[in-house]
Amino acid sequence: MCRKSDASGNPVFPRTNSDRRFFSVRMGKTRNRKIIAAAALILSAGTMSCEKRQREPESREALGTVCSVNLYESGTESKYGKIFARLDEIDALFNLSSPASDISRVNAARGAPVEVAPDFIKVLSEALEIARVTEGAFNPALGSVTELWRNAKIHTDRIPSKTEIRNALAHADFRKIRLDEQAGTVCMGDAEAKLDLNAIAKGFAADSIAEILAQGNVKGATVNLGGHIYVFGTKKDRSPWKLGIKNPNAPEGIPAVSISGLQDTAVVTSGIYDGFFTNGSGDKNAGGVFFHHIIDPETGFPADNGILSMTVVCRNAAAADALGTAFFVMGKEKSFAMMGEGAFDPVAGGRPLAVSITNDARISASRGLEGYIGVVLNDYTISFR
To answer: Does the keyword Metal-binding belong to this entry (predicted)?
Structure first.
């Protein structure tokens, strides 16, 4: 399928007024939380082949979450099977809970070179490039710090001390990581350093599924990997997709905004409402302290810059995934300034577009989304940059 872009490399959003429906999906990055997105898409009859077709979306556990794929009239058991087999392959590389995964073996090697799969090299290489361009706002070497927060959430409900954070940050320099593509090895360069690729692995998985869909002549599909969304092709009537972005103040309710005209595109949101825990009373509204999961690599604590959610729209799902985290950490002004400079073109395969929602009830969106984004809730005002 031809992937269209304009002269600047931006995704092309075909205009349509034929379908006003959209489906609201959970688009926050999730950790240790299982999510199945609701889809309000109407199916219609299609041509049957000799292989049994599946009209219902397939959902299975992988990558630490629930992964949902809907192939609509193109769905067959073999196609779903191939997709989820690929997800299992990727999970085997990046699962921090499995001692046998490539990432766990690298983290356990205390800085020694470890032979890893080509897919692992590919993902880490892109992660390091995004880390370089964002000046560490996205940091794949932050594993020693994120491990402290995971343990706090799972085991102690006690936030890490400043001393623990400071000691962990001393071993979070992504510039020390060495990749040897010819030998197929990764070396952390620091015995105490650890990788955390959670903020890019699901995006890579979405890109991998898109390749399978293109090879399988699928006309249209939606992919939801625990809130990491990829829309492929078009709907049956050849109109593009439309998604809703959560209201971060009421994530279970009506979306704050909608984005239309989406085709062959990833939409990934980093938001404060997922992957959190509340220390103290257990209720943030009754004296507890609220901690979300997006860690600022400079401080080692959850980023606190007024952003409630940051959504990235990009052809490259891995880039959208990592940049969502980076932009959230960088803040609104610096993120939109860097996008305007075109700094991410070599990484993203086209300039990424973004939507930020801040705690002053303002929505800021890339100029390239003008005409395709609409405010659903009157609580917010929108401007384009």
So the answer is: yes
Nearest Cα residue to 29 out of 342, 365, 363, 329: 329
Pairwise CA distance, residues 132 & 333, whole Å: 19
Distance CA 42, CA 284 (A): 39
What is the DSSP code string of 301-365? SB--SSEEEEEEEES-HHHHHHHHHHHHHH-HHHHHHHHHTTTTHHHHTS--EEEEEETTSEEEE
Among residues 157, 154, 152, 153, which one has the least CA distance to residue 279?
157
Residue with tokens 């869909």: 213
Q: Where are the alpha helices (DSSP H) in 198-315?
A: 198-215
Q: Which amino acid is at 192?
A: E
- Give residue-wise pLDDT tens across range 193-217: 999 999 999 999 999 999 999 999 8
Tokens 């692995």 locate to 201
Residue with tokens 């429906």: 21
Where do the domains of the chain lie?
Answer: 102-198
The answer to whether residues 187 and 111 touch, using CB atoms and an 8 Å cutoff, is yes
SS3 for 381?
Answer: strand
> Cα–Cα distances in Å, from 113 out to 110, 293, 339?
9, 30, 35
Query: What is the spatial distance between Cα 381 and Cα 362, in angstroms, rounded to a whole number?
Result: 5
The pLDDT value recorded for residue 40 is 26
- Distance, in Å, from the CA atom of 246 to the CA atom of 28, rounded to the nearest integer, reads 8
Q: How does DSSP classify residue 213? A: H
Query: For residue 282, what is the enclosing H or E element?
Result: none
User: 239: alpha, beta or left, given left = phi > 0 and alpha = psi -120 to 50?
Assistant: beta
What pTM was estimated for this model as a whole? 0.83
The domain covering 102-198 belongs, at the CATH homologous superfamily level, to ApbE-like superfamily (1.10.3980.10)
End-to-end CA distance of the chain: give it in Å, rounded.
Answer: 31
- Is 369 within 8 Å of 314 (Cβ atoms)? no
Query: Which 3 state secondary structure label does DSSP give 3?
Result: coil
Q: Pick from 273, 275, 231: which is nearest to 255 by CA?
A: 273
Residue 317 has pLDDT above 90, yes or no: yes
Residues 29, 274 contacting (CB under 8 angstroms):
yes
- Residue 25: the pLDDT is 33
How far apart CA 130 and CA 70 sit, in angstroms, is 30
Query: Whose CA is closest to 256, among 304, 310, 327?
Result: 310
